[in-house]
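EI: anyone free to look at a 127-residue chain?
SC: sure, send it
EI:
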Amino acid sequence: MADVNRGNRPLSPHLTIYRPQLTSMTSIFVRITGNALLLGALLIVWWFVAAATGPEAFARANGFITSWFGDLIMFGSVWALWYHTFGGIRHLIWDSGRMLDIEHAETAGLVMIIASVLVTIFTVVVI
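SC: here you go
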């Protein structure tokens, strides 16, 4: 039978009562950074294809990638790569049954954020 009371049921969790937790937000950002890494990968592929195509195409691609906007995208891609990597490590730890309580899960989220920023700065400055 069809549910005739469908319109009277409450929505759960509703945006007005739901408070995002650190663990949910870090998990959402892992998914976002995974998809955003495609932009940096496409730029690198464009750069390699342009290098194989000829000097004019390479100059155009290299000019864009070394511009302030290209540098911003590449810096963001490096951060996204590290953040996504640390998120994957956190999920591997969770898959082993460790750090599943709220206190340890939130600590792991904070460590993931701080470590991704520090390692990104180290990568950009040193390498």
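EI: The longest helix spans residues 22-53.
SC: 👍
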